[in-house]
Automatic annotation (TrEMBL):
InterPro entries: AB_hydrolase_1, AB_hydrolase_fold, AB_hydrolase_sf, Epox_hydrolase-like, Ser_caboxypep_ser_AS. This is Pimeloyl-ACP methyl ester carboxylesterase. It holds the Pfam family Abhydrolase_6. It comes from Actinoplanes lutulentus. Residues 12-249 form the AB hydrolase-1 domain. It comes from the Bacteria. One of its GO terms (molecular function) is serine-type carboxypeptidase activity.
């Protein structure tokens, strides 16, 4: 898998969500890690997204997970590492804590997929809670529609972050490949089918997240007995830049807990 690497020290693997690319994670995490030396950050593009191709043999989430495992073996080896995942990346992260828990020092999940089937999720209706009345979304109606469909906070800053962190990845995703993988999107084994993950964890959800919701993820808590679980108001599926102050504080606190052990 193609990836961007930053810094040196304890490995940190950051897995982005469905359809965008590594910039989704790099945009929200680099400002944090730039102030915390001692971490080697790895930002891969998942198969079919960003610059990572997906040959016909990659036809399910099981196949994507296998590619992530190969990436870990190749780039991190047996060294313990920190794991962060957003949305679909959170779903894969749950599976990794089942498969290789002894290698993961801590896990943080941002708006993780809880219930796989969209029609079975408990999701609030989309709503906009903050909007700049003079907001300019530009001349591209596709961009405006994608932003407006998900954004709870609609300001010049969230437009900028969506354009830089999300939109460019959406534009280059291999939609044919993603459609193939979506036919077998659910992992064949329950990510929580193994023993509880007992290292420092963080689960962040948005109260207005109309994509994956916030309440289904509460059922994950028994499996993560060292988890901080936070539901952020005025935050949707892009809570990392709709509530950046809270996001930064909670990620930093999780990093402190991991470092303390």
């Amino acid at each position: 898998m193609r990836f961007v690497e930053k810094g040196a020290g304890t490995p940190v693997l950051a897995l982005h969500g469905w359809t965008p690319d590594h910039r989704l994670m790099l945009g929200c995490l680099e400002p944090i890690f730039e102030a915390r030396p001692g971490y080697r950050r790895l930002y891969p593009d998942l198969p079919g997204m960003g610059a990572t191709p997906a040959p016909p043999g990659i036809a399910s989430s099981d196949d994507v997970l296998a590619e992530v495992r190969r990436f870990i073996d190749a780039e991190i080896g047996q060294e313990p590492f920190l794991l962060l995942g957003e949305s679909y990346g959170g779903y894969l992260s749950r599976a990794l804590t089942r498969d290789i828990p002894q290698r993961i020092r801590g896990v943080a999940m941002i708006c993780p997929t809880g219930v796989v089937r969209r029609e079975d999720r408990a999701r609030p209706a989309h709503q906009v809670l903050r909007r700049d009345p003079a907001l300019d979304l530009g001349d591209d109606p596709r961009f405006a529609a994608e932003f407006a469909e998900m954004a709870v906070v609609q300001t010049a800053e969230t437009v900028r972050r969506f354009r830089e962190d999300v939109w460019d990845g959406l534009e280059i995703a291999d939609t044919t490949t993603l459609a193939r993988i979506e036919q077998r999107w659910e992992l064949s084994a329950d990510p929580e089918s193994g023993p509880p993950f007992t290292r420092p964890s963080l689960i962040l959800t948005g109260l207005q997240d109309a994509s994956v919701g916030f309440s289904d993820q509460f059922a994950l808590l028994p499996h993560y007995p060292r988890a901080t679980f936070a539901v952020l108001d005025v935050a949707g599926h892009n809570l990392q830049f709709e509530q950046p102050t809270l996001f930064n504080a909670l990620i930093n606190e999780w990093l402190d807990r991991v470092a303390a052990e």
